[in-house]
């Protein structure tokens, strides 16, 4: 029997007259990598925002995390419960060292302090294979791929059970995307459930065990990634018919 760690029931988000997320339901199984795809503006980031409450929760529906209803809870309470995320934008504190950036998530999301926080940050940096000799560098001086590693390390330093990644491959070269692919599977093998939004289809198909496609805020289809991506409705909506 699948063991859902995250379940959405009829989740909806409206902005005035616009329904950005429309009656979305799905369940993520503990331990899997669950991919979310869809054309620009289909509601992917809004869906992540609804789940984490940053900066807003849903206007309708229910979200259950590890057996507890979390919609309507404050963002830091959701973070502390074990649901951690990354954002599309870059590191917010360029003057912090790489170590300090990695520690941010452990502090805010994990409630860790002192030696425990330092250890959690170090462990997360090890897990994302961030070079030991670069850990005292300013975050601003770290490479694009290094900043991605730091963003993921920071999210992992809170020791989450679910890691949500919003387009982690944007701005990366092909070899870096291959490295990210390996890294995500490595993180997943430690027992962390992953939800990933990604426009780089090769990465999404490689890491995801299941794939959900959104179109105009609604679930178009969900299932085995290779089958989903061949669905003519997905080809039409996601690739604009170009691959048909
Ligand atoms: N804060 C907001 N206020 C008003 N409208 C919003 C807000 N956030 C998102 N939207 C609208 O909701 C819809 C879904 O946007 P969203 O960013 O979730 O799509 P997306 O699938 O993540 O797109 P992309 O792939 O380009 O990142 C869009 O029409 C967008 O303009």
Task: Please provide a written account of the structure.
This protein is α/β, with parallel strands linked by helices and 244 residues long. The protein has 2 domains: 1-82 and 161-244, Rossmann fold; 91-159, no CATH class. It is 37% helix and 25% strand. It contains 9 helices and 10 strands. α3 (98-108) crosses α4, α3 (98-108) runs parallel beside α5 (144-156) and α4 (114-127) packs across α5 (144-156). The longest helix is centred in the C-terminal third of the chain and has 16 residues, at 174-189. The termini are far apart. It binds adenosine-5'-triphosphate. It comes from Salipiger marinus. InterPro entries: AAA+_ATPase (IPR003593), ABC_AA/LPS_Transport (IPR051120), ABC_transporter-like_ATP-bd (IPR003439), BCA_ABC_TP_C (IPR032823), P-loop_NTPase (IPR027417).
Count the DSSP helices.
9
Computed CA radius of gyration, to the nearest angstrom? 18 Å
Give the total of beta strands.
Answer: 10
Ends apart, CA distance between termini: 36 Å
Q: In CATH terms, what is the architecture of the largest domain?
A: 3-Layer(aba) Sandwich
The largest beta-sheet arranges its strands as 6-7-8-3-9-10
Q: Main beta sheet: strand number and arrangement?
A: 6 strands, mixed
Annotation keywords:
single chain, 244 residues, alpha/beta, Rossmann fold, 2 domains, six-stranded mixed sheet, four-stranded antiparallel sheet, 10 strands, 37% helix, binds adenosine-5'-triphosphate
